Structure formats: C-alpha cells, structure tokens
C-alpha cells in the first residue's frame, strides 16, 4: 500500500453548489417588463428632478424618491456611444463582428444597451438615429428578448448637443 | 479596559424605522422595500440625506442571488452629490457599529445605517449552509435548523433547559408581538398548546424556530449638538462591542456564549441596572444562552417587541433589536437597555450595545 504522505498536497476539491432563487422585479420594473410584452418601452419620471428612467427600478438614484409617473417612450433613439465586438466567447449567439451600443430613447434621460444590426460594423457612429425592431407579436414576452435589435431608421444624425450629457 | 473606562464620544440613536415584516414581499424589489423605511427614518426627525455624513448598510447577496445588491439598494437613498458610504456583509447591527466607530473620530456628526433582508427568495436552509466551512462541512449541507437542534440538545443534556422552556419563550414572544404592529407572528397561545407542535428537528418544535421574514430597517445615529437638536430625549449608546468565536462547531461549547459574555463585559452591561433586553436569538433555546452570557437577572424584560421569534428578517433582525431597545427608552418605558445581535451558526458572532436615556 502506498504511503499517503508521499502522494503530495491535494490541490483540488470539488464541492458542487446550486441555489435557486425567485426574482422579484418589483412594481416599477414590472411596468417596464409588461411594456416589452406589448412591444413598447415604458419609463418612469422622477417627481423631483424630472428625469425619465428606462427601465426604472422604482426610485430616482439621484434623489432617492419613488418614480411614480409612467412615461411611454418612443421606439426611436440615438446612439450615444458604441463598441464593435470582434472577440468570440462561449455562448455567443451573434455572428462577429457586431455592434453593441448605448441607445438614448427619445424622451428618456438614461441610455440603455442595445444590439445594432442591418448596418456594416464599420459604419456605426455616435449620433446615429435608430429604431427598435421587435419580435413577432406572438413571440412578445415580458423580457428584453422581445427587442430583436435596433437598426438605423434613416433620419439625419442627432446633433451632439442633444445627447452630450448622456455619454 | 471596559467601555466605561474608555473615552467614548456620546452617540445617540436619533431615529429608527422598520418595514412591515412579512413572509414574502413579492410585490416590491429591494429598493422599493427600502425607500419608505429610509423616508420614515429621516422623516421622524425632519432631516434629509444631506444631513448625514456617512451611509453604512448591512446585507448579503446570498439571499437575493444577485451580485452587488447593496450598490443597487443605494438608489433608495439617492447618493448625489456623491456620498461617503460603506457596506458590511453582515447584519445591519454591525453596519451600525462601523458607523459608530466613524462617529468616534469626530469628523462627522450623523450617519444613516440600514439593512434589508429578503429571506424568502431562495431556500434559506440551503443558503445558510454556505456560511459553514466550505471544504468539510458545507458539502454535507448541514442546515441551520439541524445545527440549532444540536445546540438545543446539548443544552437539554447539560441540564440547562427543557423543551418546556423553549415553548415558554415562544409563547411569551408571540404574546408580546400582539402589541408590535410590525411583527409577523403574533398570537396569544399557551406553552402547553405549543408543546403539542410536531418536531421539525427534535428537540426543536415549530414554535422554537424563527419565521422566514422579508423586512428592512434603518437607524440614524447622531452625535454632539445634532443628537439634542433631533431628539427631546436622546438615547445614548454607552457601550458597544462585538466578538466572534471559531467557525468550527466541534471546537465550541454550544451551551454557552463566551463571545457574548466578553462583548457584554467590554460594553459595560453590568455597570448598571438593565431594564430591557432585546435579544437576537433566532431559535428559542438561544435566548437562554444569551441571557445567561449577558448576566441578566429575572427582573429584566426580554424582547418586549416579540423578538426574532415574531419576525426574523435576516440581516435586519439584529439592527431591529437595537432600534426596538432605543424606542423603549425614548418612550420612557425603560432607562437602560441592552441590545444583542448575532451572526453565524449557533451564536458564533455576537454584538452587544448598551443604551441609556437621560
Ligand atoms: Zn430625481
């Protein structure tokens, strides 16, 4: 029998752990998710500073007060900044290179992340006007998966002054 | 050196607020649950976030199953202009301790402390297993009820308590909770009736276990002139200490709590009469161990709020003990109170806070 003490240090010990959690989106985020289910972007306005958040988590992060007023936002927005993804990674479902952009929806005061398609990656630019392309009505769910991507809508680029504070 | 011998800057519990304690809040997210509590704790004394120089919170991502939940929770306060802030992956009572230490430095005069506990989002027994040693204990998935039952068994075998004692504590807690509108479990039920409960894990019957609770709490600490400005009867922290023991259950005497006793000594519990004690003993038998370690006699009113057997929002239940104890003094029902908070399995870490009115 081998002497255990000569086998060297144990370097690996597998202790598998799995935990399941319920997710509680809350009142405000539920409004946003229910909006997506209907093919529209719902934001909420801060009663103190007037900013419109999308999605709102229920509070204005600046003022710490509840955002109570629902605001229906446009399907159209402006690319405030972007990056072009050229690196393949595990679980990637989109062909590279692709464009990941921050889109400021008309009427909102925060941008959110979106995929930009129907344009060669080297033609994306700040200020580009884009519109959301939704999945078919029968496939709409209370999830961002309802938005397939954004694409250029052909409008003239937005003036830098209109989005410079949202970079 | 005890607290009484140290030079301690007087700091007061200026305001306390807690949410309704419920089994499961599936309407609101963490921010939405916290916002009314923060608004109330400021509103009680007519201040805003601009009046506090420091924010400290206690919570754990393990309960929510998402990373950096404490950062998102700050949206409930509104950290603009940028705030001085900290967080402990502990019960809010330890966040209060950190804020108290900072106030000792004298640079700031007020701090906001809050905590939120969503105990309902996962399987609490499984989640709490992950606080054990990750190599030898956690892989066996020893759940917190079973570990607590081991402790209760040791207590019975040592001749220090009986199952009837556990039922008496649960009965008193539930009855007292009838006068606490924020409590989750409140009922006038005799120990004899409770002893008819089935065992969950012997020797612990259902009533000896804490409820699973969603809840949040907040406290404003104030020092110097602000303490008097914000309160007609300031409630002063006159002693504050916390201690911990080894994580190895086998290396501890589970029937006693030397860390509580040491914290109590350092906080100066014995240097005056104790009117009220709010004890964070999630399992009924643990109250017996903590009360002994704190050196409390039979004249002390224990857990008039109903205690953790009436509502046990993880990460908040300890902070709530301090808030409840302070409210007893503020309302004139007590002059000197002791609040206790615990963390870890079988009373591994313990915090003791002594409060006094003027
Ligand atoms: Zn605002």
What does this structure look like?
The complex is a heterodimer of chains A (167) and B (358). Chain A has 167 residues and is mainly beta. Chain A folds into 2 domains: 24-73, no CATH class; 74-167, OB fold (Dihydrolipoamide Acetyltransferase, E2P) (Beta Barrel). Chain A contains 1 helix and 8 strands. Chain A has one helix spanning 26-37, and strands at residues 42-45, 52-53, 69-72, 76-85, 98-105, 112-116, 129-134, 147-152. In chain A, the strands form 2 sheets. Chain A has a 5-stranded antiparallel β-sheet with strand order 6-5-4-7-8, with no helix packed on it. Chain A has a 3-stranded antiparallel β-sheet with strand order 2-1-3, with helices on one face. Chain A is globular and about 75 Å long. Chain A starts with 25 loop residues before the first helix and ends in a 15-residue tail after the last strand. The relative contact order of chain A is 0.16. The mean pLDDT of chain A is 93. Chain B has 358 residues and is of the alpha/beta class. Chain B folds into 2 domains: 3-123 and 212-229, Peroxisomal Thiolase, Chain A, domain 1, CATH 3.40.47.10; 127-211 and 235-357, Peroxisomal Thiolase, Chain A, domain 1 (3-Layer(aba) Sandwich). Helix content of chain B is 32%, strand content 20%. Chain B has 12 helices and 12 strands. Chain B has helices at 30-43, 61-64, 69-73, 92-105, 124-129, 144-157, 163-176, 191-194, 224-229, 258-267, 284-294, 317-330, and strands spanning 11-18, 54-58, 85-88, 110-118, 199-201, 204-205, 214-223, 236-244, 276-278, 301-302, 336-343, 349-356. Chain B has a 10-stranded mixed β-sheet, sandwiched between helices. Chain B has a two-stranded antiparallel sheet with strand order 5-6. In chain B, 56% of the residues are buried. The mean pLDDT of chain B is 96. Classes of the chains: A mainly beta (167), B alpha/beta (358). The A-B interface holds A 13, 15, 17, 19-29, 57-66 and B 25-32, 35, 38, 49, 62, 64-66, 72, 74-80, 118, 120-123, 126-127, 130, 134-135, 138-139. Bound molecules: zinc ion. The site of zinc ion (ZN) has 7 residues of chain A, from loops.
